[in-house]
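Methods: holo model generation. Sequences were used as deposited, without trimming of termini or removal of tags, and paired with ligand SMILES retrieved from the corresponding compound records. Each pair was processed once, and we did not select among multiple samples. The sequence and zinc ion SMILES for this entry were:
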Amino acid sequence: MAAATGVALTLAPISFTRARADAAVTGAGTTGDGQETRVVTGRLETGAADFVYIPVRVPAGVQRIAVEYSYDRPAVPAGTPGNSCDVGIFDERGIELDGKGFRGWSGGFRTSFEISNGEATPGYLPGPIKPGTWHVVLGPYQVAPQGMNYTVQITLTYGPSGPAFTPDHPPKRAKGRGRAWYRGDGHLHTVHSDGRRTPAEVAAGARAAGLDFMVSTDHNTSSSHGVWGQYAGEDLLIITGEEITTRNGHWLALGLPAGEWIDWRYRSRDDVFGRFARKVRGAGGLVVPAHPYCPYVACQWKFGYDDADLVEVWNGPWTYDDESAVDTWDAMLGEAVRKGRRWIPAMGNSDAHSEPQVIGLPHNVVYADDLTTEAVMGGLRAGRSWIAESRTVQLAFTAGGDGRRADIGGTLTAPADAPIDVRLDVQGVPGGTVRFVTDEGQMHQESLPASGSGSVVWRTTTSLAAYVRAEVRHPMADGSPGKGNTMGPNLMWGPMAALTNPIFLRRSGS
Ligand SMILES: [Zn+2]
Ligand SMILES: [Zn+2]
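and the model returned the structure below.
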């Protein structure tokens, strides 16, 4: 059933007439007689279905399916969305939500694609072209007031299928340093979705950024998973994932088993997100709402955080929407403490797509048992991590008192009035501003020297603070350190250089 969720429209099927016998006569490698093309035109109005399915009856004997599409872009007044339409394809196994039929998606990044047994356009899955009803899917996510006129051209090439594609999945382990802090970027794009970097370029960029691991998160497809093996190495753990791009926000599925694909065809109101979150978690992966306040169309997060394992509070170079994400996350920490509930750790990723976006700006520094997918996922899940703008930023953050010590993501239990010293040692942020934030807001602010290195110690108790976390900010544009506990028309702070997950402080006996 097409419309399992959301709004979907299925058009009349497109048929191809050629029988297998004819294909055998023309043979492989021929053109003209060996190909058949159909052109579909149509029009969508404002308020069109989220997904428009064009059934394509594929006969036996097809070795390649090729699709081209285009649509008009009438001029619209400033502030009114113009036409934009995504494309993808499902095979004879069907278009059911979370079904087996997914064969690729290129969003709005490409105007054509091809699939055969041995190869496919990036974003698409090579494999058998079996007879049955395939579906080209259009995703008109913005339709101009004048409507959208589209053309889809489908070409089948007949002949024997070539050798099968052999996936080259990355290993789940690299040469680590045992239990240690590992740096990694959990949100990266390639030519397999809307990035302009090849997988080779992304892996080289991760190495250049001094990262120990990276997660591949192309939009809505698993097609890159089968190529990462050759780019991984003893020095770089490559983890497979996906960025699920819905109409109500984006989320990262990190640590997906290679080849696993997660469906994106739902809105918040369909109430199926939890089902996909459980699928990811059940497979050992992590569910991470991405850039929750990104102002771009369909990017704002509307699924809530009940099913989130982490939240991406810092996405790419520091901007206003990141401030909002940190504020929301901080409020959730307070709520978790109050209700005695699970807390949700923060992470930060570059979301780099193309030059000049910087891979590793920012990235996570994770305390993991080893440099393996499982251990890195475990460290992130437990919040044993902090976020660094680059590898030049280093820090250590601890809380100690009553003869005990706790690190990032941990809990220090002590009597209500026992003094607790919270200590941050930091390097690499010249003139930076250190903020200690608790469930009562900013409780301490101190500037770093021009060298960028320093130690900040602040004393509290478990009765005064339920958690404490650290931020290190660059100076403001005018060179001043920024002022906490004030208000004004501008941001109070310079860009983030480092952000830690909290250390929890718990009163003994409570
Ligand atoms: Zn996104
Ligand atoms: Zn992204």
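The longest strand covers residues 132-142.
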